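Internal QA ticket QA-208
Title: Verify multi-chain structure generation after dependency bump
Assignee: T.L.

Test input:
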Amino acid sequence: MNAAQYKTWDEFMEGVWRQNPVFVMVLGMCPTLAVTVSAINAISMGVATLFVLVCSCGLVSLMRKLTPKEVRIAVYIVIIATFVTAVDYAIQAISLALYDALGAFIQLIVVNCIILGRAEAHAAKNPPLPAMINAAGMGVGFTIGLLALGVVREILGAGTLFGVALFGAGFQPWVIMVLPPGGFFVLGAWLLLFSWWARRKAGLPAKEATPHV
Amino acid sequence: MSEPSSTDKKVIPIAVAAPEAAPPESPTGAMIRTLGLVSAICGLIIVGAYQGTYDAVAANKRIATERAVFKVLPKAKSIEEFVAQAGGGIAKVGAGDTAIPPGAVKFFAAYDESGKLAGIAAEGVGKGYADNVRIMFGYQPDCQCVVGIGVVSMRETPGIGDKIITDKEFLANFTALDVKLKADLSALANEVKAVKHGSKANAWQIDAIAGATITSRAVGKAINDSAQALLPRLVPKLDTLAKKS
Amino acid sequence: MNSAPIEIRSAPHVQSTKTVETIMRNVVYSLLPICAFYVFQYGISALASIAVVTGICLLTERFFVRTGTQAGRLSDYSAVITGLLLALTLPPGFPLWMGAVAGMVAIALGKALFGGIGFNVFNPALVGRAFVQAAFPTAIATYTPSFLPGRFTEFIPSTLAWPLMIPAEPTAWLKAKNLDALAGATPLAKWKFDGVIANADELLTSLSGHMAVGPSPMLILLCGAYLASRRYMDWRIPLAVLGSAALTAWLLFAFDPARYPNPFFMLFSGGLILGAVYMATDMATSPVTPKGMWVYGALIGLLTVVIRYYSGLPEGVMYAILIANAASPLIEKVTQPIPFGRGVLDRAKKRATYPLNPGYISREEASAVTPKKRFLPNKPKK
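Actual output:
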């Protein structure tokens, strides 16, 4: 890898790993908790967000020299809302069942702070290509985060993975996993795992010694 | 560091940041130009997306409706959409005609292979445990009864409320649920109602699922409300629907 | 406490041989007769359930203590109590693998996450039960009648369900024993869904056959009395819980006897007695102030009756205690006693704020040199 490639790769990996929107920045919790009942839902939501992220960051970046700072938020929101509407139609065209499962959370991508955050913090200051690569990294990171929750919740909550039954007919579903509390539990468990991992990699002890009073 | 006393007149040089020069304001023309440009681009994208997906979305919706109707009326092979108007008449709904006149009730007439009326399907809504339970039910004019139900949408507790889809004992209620009209065709002769598990005595009662009484009641109410509104208008005009138009 | 050889604490100092371990050990002793009677009622299924749940609780505790995530030691018996109580609240034929999930969640989520013994906000056993109640609502509502013939040689079929698999329905099994499916309903469920009220004296002893009930309330009260008399448990909380539940139930009963059951039925059915004596009194999750204990207990009793009457669930003790657990820091804060020496006259001006505001410290104490500085003369000066 030469330096330029490396930099591109680094730009991409920032969102996937170091600044993962779900596990590190803990952003976009609304869809993360709400639609991750199954792996398919999680991936669809992730890909929809990825598409909106990449397209809107590309357009924001193209328009960055033309955009006066007084009206920039209005411009970003209009651009994001446009792509969300397009995705909304696309999902209706692909599958109505999926559209019903994702519900209002498709439209709510508009207010997902990952997207506005990327547009304001990165795309508005960088040329289109790096902006889109960075946005793609974020989108992939978000998808991975959703998928991590969706896989666990689907396996325990329904005994299936991507709709394929894993345990046969007699599986006892854990009802709590498809209810909102299950989302919180699984997210908490993943965050715990990630922070433990991060501490271990940094060479820190698993826990600071808490003084017992 | 001690503070300089008030008697000490020596001026201490402090680097005072000069008031930041206000960034030049963007000219109004530029703002309008940018917003206009963005709006134009975005408008184009939205129109493009709408046009590009219109056929697929319409086809999807039709297939979804057909599937729901075919489920409650297994003999049906094709459907047509009608509305029963507030005044009494019924009118056909053309393709793409989504707006329903106020007070009208939408229903589907289902026909079998030979074009004969196989039954009527209509939607009903009842307040469930978590949210509205929307169901589709099939009405058979010959026996004046409900012959099948399907759930259009619900958010009932998995494992408890959603038994209304799977519980065989519960679904057996809807093989011939009586929705006869009064002699003067003004309303149902007997109100359709969900009763406590095990206490069903009449053909117009629904035996609720034990532990999911609220959801069962929602189904009963959905059928009752919809049938009360639709059937008095529909039954006198049944002849006009007998053959596929 | 052998971990800290010297402890420096402020006055008052009370000499006592009571340690956490002694208290916990005595609670375990007092639970043993209850468990024994439970096993006598339901046979080997109940025994297996108690053994598995307690075992899993201990294993989970061991894991978290070993990895240094939580304070406390395995030998402090607290995990044993959690396990025994959890097993007693589950139906006797509860699948063992679900019991294991409950035990694991109880210790991991209810205790280890907060830092171990003494730091938990909610009663760990109830956290475990709440989790399985939400995860497996059907299994946890499936009871079997007590005193079945052959209970010491044969497992209830649902007990031995394969891990992750649906347990067998007890209907066929009950039919083979000439009992109808309704025999498996708890007295509370029968009342809630069918309007049948069981006799209070039968409920109290749990001795009349073929009732789907938990451990005997009478025995629990006796064991609780032993604990209270040895001062291992505060008598105020159970009394407040039962008193407030009885009062609420009695008021409603007096208001409309046709609609509401009598207060004795309310007291002795379900898990109210077990909850009042063993769950609500958990030291870490209940207030320490005497006045607070009354408030806390009254809240539990009231909530229990309200949930039983007006919600979709037949039993409400668990949620009532969990809610009161969450409220107990607040209860503690508003019921702080007035420190001695602060006159009645001051009371109006300033509510007692004993631990929150150091203003109660006398002037001499406040300006006293802290021992730290005196004992560490070698500390380098800045």
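Spot checks passed. Residues 62-241 of chain B form one domain.
Status: verified.
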